[in-house]
Write a structure and sequence with these properties.
9 helices; Rossmann fold; five-stranded parallel β-sheet; about 250 residues; Arc Repressor Mutant, subunit A; four-stranded antiparallel β-sheet; disordered N terminus
Length: about 250
């Protein structure tokens, strides 16, 4: 069972398949980055690099969400979005448009054809992942857990609150994102570079040692007295949320 499904089952008592996302992007390096980060979040991801292929995939097997580049070989992203909104079975499909165009007029044009969100390149990967989660939660609330609970730690994405054994844990924005990322994938070991990419974003100009500082702050906030440390330090590799936490 993947991490997203695990989170859903633990928070709502029932399991479901992971949301399916179609990435339509012809820039290879960007497509690779998107697929890697979306799969790391636990989503099922398919990638195509042109508008004609995208139309075939959308007709054959509609996904739960589309990340759609504005400028594509073949049919443009703008036209694909327009055609989607004209189809009864795709009127409510969440669409995030990617573009290098940052002018207000172009943003309005993209939204006017039915895009739900609009992201200008270059963008922050954590911010895009947050937008994906928000759109999926709005369109398919049963597919994305709003709360993550492991052991005696409870994280509520909607209220941005964390509790352990009923007491409130006060975390800064970075520590909250770090804990959320760990709890989505218990047992998986992340290198410092992976955490920088996923929590801070690839464009962040910070040293990998910064990860150690924030993990230390997170531990200090989470642990009181003899409480068990939920975060494992894996020598020579990185960090992981202990998958056995709360099972003893």
């Amino acid at each position: 069972m993947n991490e997203v499904n695990t989170a859903i089952q633990r928070s709502s008592g029932k399991s479901d398949r992971a949301p399916r996302i179609l990435v339509v992007e012809d820039e290879t390096s960007l497509a690779t980055l998107l697929v890697y980060n979306l799969e790391a979040e636990g989503y099922q991801v398919e990638h195509v690099d042109n508008g004609d292929e995208a139309e075939l995939r959308l007709a054959e097997s509609p996904p739960d969400l589309v990340i759609l580049d504005w400028m594509l070989p073949g049919v443009s992203g703008l036209e694909i979005c327009r055609r989607l909104r004209a189809r009864d079975n795709a009127k409510d499909m969440p669409v995030i448009m990617l573009t290098a165009r940052g002018e207000e007029g172009e943003r309005v044009r993209g939204l006017s054809v039915g895009a739900d969100d609009y992201v200008v390149k270059p963008f922050s990967t954590p911010e895009l992942m947050a937008r994906v989660r928000a759109l999926l939660r709005r369109a398919r609330p049963e597919r994305v857990a709003s709360r993550l609970t492991l052991g005696d730690i409870d994280l509520d994405r909607d209220t941005r609150r964390v509790r352990r054994s009923g007491r409130e844990i006060h975390l800064g924005p970075t520590e909250f994102r770090l804990l959320e990322y760990f709890m989505e994938k218990p047992g998986r070991v992340f290198t410092r570079a992976q955490l920088l990419d996923s929590v801070w974003g690839m464009s962040a100009e910070i040293d990998e040692r910064t990860v150690d500082v924030h993990v230390g702050r997170l531990r200090k906030a989470l642990i009181r007295g003899r409480e068990k440390d939920p975060i494992r330090t894996v020598r020579g590799a990185g960090y992981s949320f202990d998958e056995t936490f709360g099972q003893e």
